[in-house]
Structures are given as structure tokens and as C-alpha cells.
């Protein structure tokens, strides 16, 4: 491949060796940080902002509830597929230019989402939105690391970790409030001014930043097998419950396609000179251990973020906005503690901090496993608050661990790869958790009804009392109550399993070996 050192915009010559050896600093580090953080916040926010608005969206567009879930999964899958392109695109066009294009394209896609007049158009627009924003987070991370001195890079990572935590929490609250008080279209329209502002700020602050660009060849086979394999797998997971899984020919075919395509993808990427996904990064011990720990823990964390609001609405009768408020305290402690974690975490063994995070996550999961239908808002919110301790100690240490033994030129690709598998983990967790909850609910409903035969006189009298003399109406009410109890038992079982998963992840981080120092990109003109 060829390689060229990019010059500052408007200059006719490459920077001198002395100037190139100096790390780039924007006119205002604070303003550049604000622009980068806003773009990341906007992108991560959109992973959850539509969740509580799905009933309204499906009703307005004349779609079913199952069809409405594609508003979420189309974004997640397209986003995950685009993430591995980060390394290729950043090498080809430069990190600043890639950030600008991705942010502006996200603005356009958000506008298309807001003006959608059908569910099909909205799903396509969401897929486009997810695809164009794929490189935004890893490129933002690379740019942020590049403008901070080594001693403060932990704080920069902590800032992005805080954005990663707060944005998904703010999403359901903001989405519910906008939907209730305005209209669902505005959950997408708000991205337009934010995105334009972020793109302008970063463009002005990063003007003149020297970048090294290359002309790598496109790995078309890798891209095709990635799209085919991941797409087929996600569709299979989304449709599995509806199609009765492997009793359906469609599900069997999708599974075969996914397995074959992903097997070809992995084999090809490990042997290709310029892979679209550099799987060889897993040769680094810390990257491998940290990424597996991140994916596993994030999948469990994502499942919690999905299940708690759904449970509050389906089982507890909460409105959309209050189903967003109850989980919100999870963000309080991360916001308060993140600056201190970023500043002082490197004084401790990061594996120990991550272990404490997973213990806190496991403890709160086991506490939810003891919930019943009489639990009050205060207890739900308090457990969310306690989980915030785990969240505050989770992202920054694990991110630092997985980036610690990468070479400087591998940071952007490594961040993109880690974010790719993390996003896939969350997407798959959403499908599997929903399926598991439905399955356990069905099983427990059948078991409970075994003890309440319709021919039993006591059951008939109970149903008559519930229906105020109407046996049919009472029987429906009794069945609804049994369904709620069955769903609650299934909910508790899943959280018990999530607690075990968090404890198991502790072993993964201890495979990593110090030192855990986040490296920044080498300045242009330095040694390669």
C-alpha cells in the first residue's frame, strides 16, 4: 500500500520534521473536547432514545409491535457492521475528515428519520443512520487521546466512558418526554442542530492537524461476508421466537448462511494482508482479555437496560416517562465519580477496579432477582443508584486495559474492533434476553395453571369474584394475573443468571498483564 503524510489544509508543503514531531494541540482543548463529546453523546443517545417511543411510532405509522422493533435492531446491526470500517476509512481519509463526514451524514440520516411517512422508510433511514455513525465513537476516542498529554489520557477515556453511560440512560427519559409532549419525530430532529454544531466546532479546532493517510485496498470479500454473516445472524435472532426457531425453514437457512459466512469471514481476515477487520489485534494479550470482558459485561449491562424499563411498563403499569425515570439514578454516581476515576484510577491495579465493578453489578442483579409485583419505585431507583458504582468503575479501567498493549497506529482500528464486538454483544443480548424472558414466562404460566384447573369449584368461585359475578370476565382477569406472576418469575431468573455472568467476567480481566497505560498516536514524522 502507499502512504502519504497529509499536510495542513491550505498549505503547499508538508510540515517540517521539527513541527511534525510536536504533538498537535487545538486552539482550545476544552472546546475541541466539547465538540467531540457532543457528537459521541448524540450518537450513543440514539441507541436508546426510540425505545420508549415504539408504541407511538408503530401506532402512527400503522405497523405492528414486532415491526416496530426493527427501528432498534436496524440501527444496531448497521452500526455494528460499519464499525470495523473505522480502521480502513481513517487510514484512507484521515481521522478528522472521517469525523466530519460521519457527523454530517448522521445529521442527514436523522432528518430522513424524522420525515419518514412509513415504517419501511423509517427502518431504512435508521439503518442508514446506524451505518454512517459507526466510525464516530472510535474516531472520537482516537482524536481525544491525540489532543491530551499522556498524563491526562486516562481522564479523556473516563470522559468518553461517562458519555457511554449517561447517554443511554438519558435516551428513554428524553424520548419519553419528547413523545409525550411533542411528537416522536422530534427524537430525531434534535440531532440536526447538535450534529451541525459538533461538526463545526471540531472542524475549526482541528484545522491544521497533520494526519498520515494511506491508500489501502478495499477488502471486498471481508466486507461482503461480514455483512452477510452478521445480518443473517441478527435477523435469525430477531425472528426466532416468532418463527418457532428451528422448526422454521427460514430460521434454519438463516443460521446456515450466518455460520458459513462468518466462518469464511474469520478465515479470510486472518490471512488477508489488508483486512477490513484486523482480527490479528487479538494477538495482544490485554486487548484480547479486555475485549472479551468488555463484550460479556456490556451484553449483560445492555440486557439490564432493556429489561428494567420493559418490566416497569408491562408488569408494573408504569408510563413511558416514568419507566425512564426509575432507571435514571444509575447515572448519578458515574457522573460524580468519573472525574476521580479518570484522575486516580491509574494509581491502582485496574484489574482490581474492574473486579469491584463486576461485584457491584452482580450484587444489584441478585437484588433484582428478588423483586415481586409489590416492589415500589424507591427500591427500584435505589438499586439503580447502587449499580452506578459498578458502572463508574467498569468502562474506564476495561477500556484502558484493552488499549494498553496496542501499538499507537493500531489505536483507531483496535477501538473500532472493540466497539464493533461490544455493539454486537448488546444487540444479540437484546434479542436473546427478550426470547429467554418470553420462554420462561410461557413455561411458568403453564406450571402455574396446572395448579388452577378450570373445573375446580374453588377456582371458579375465585374467577366469579374477580369478575364481580361474571365468570368469563373473571377468568380473563385471573389468567392475566397468572401471566404477570409468570413474567415476574422469568424476570427474576434472568437477573439471577446475569449476576452469575458478572461474577464470571472477573476471571477474564485477570488474564491481562500490567502495565496498563493508554497510548496515544505517534506524531506524524515520528518513527513508524
Describe this structure in words.
The protein folds into 3 domains: 26-213, Up-down Bundle (Growth Hormone, Chain: A), CATH 1.20.1250.20; 219-275; 280-522, Growth Hormone, Chain: A (Up-down Bundle), CATH 1.20.1250. With 528 residues, the protein is an all-alpha fold. Helix 9 (136-147) crosses helix 21. Residues 1-21 and 520-528 have low confidence and may be disordered. It has helices at 17-21, 29-45, 54-61, 65-68, 70-82, 85-93, 95-114, 119-132, 136-147, 153-181, 186-189, 191-205, 220-239, 249-271, 285-314, 320-325, 332-344, 350-368, 377-392, 395-403, 411-450, 457-466, 471-509; strands at residues 3-5, 212-214.
Strand order of the largest sheet: 1-2
Helix content: over 70%
The averaged pLDDT comes out at 80
Radius of gyration computed on alpha carbons: 24 Å
Order of helices and strands: EHHHHHHHHHHHHEHHHHHHHHHHH
CATH topology of the largest domain: Growth Hormone, Chain: A
Give the total of beta strands.
2
Number of helices: 23
- The first-level CATH class of the largest domain is given as Mainly Alpha
What separation lies between the terminal Cα atoms? 15 Å
Please describe the biggest sheet, giving its number of strands, its sense, and whether it closes into a barrel.
2 strands, antiparallel
Which word captures the global form?
globular
Structure class: mainly alpha
What is the CATH architecture term of the largest domain?
Up-down Bundle
Beta-strand percent range: under 5%
Low-confidence stretches: 1-21, 520-528
Full CATH superfamily name of the largest domain: MFS general substrate transporter like domains
Structurally, the number of domains stands at 3
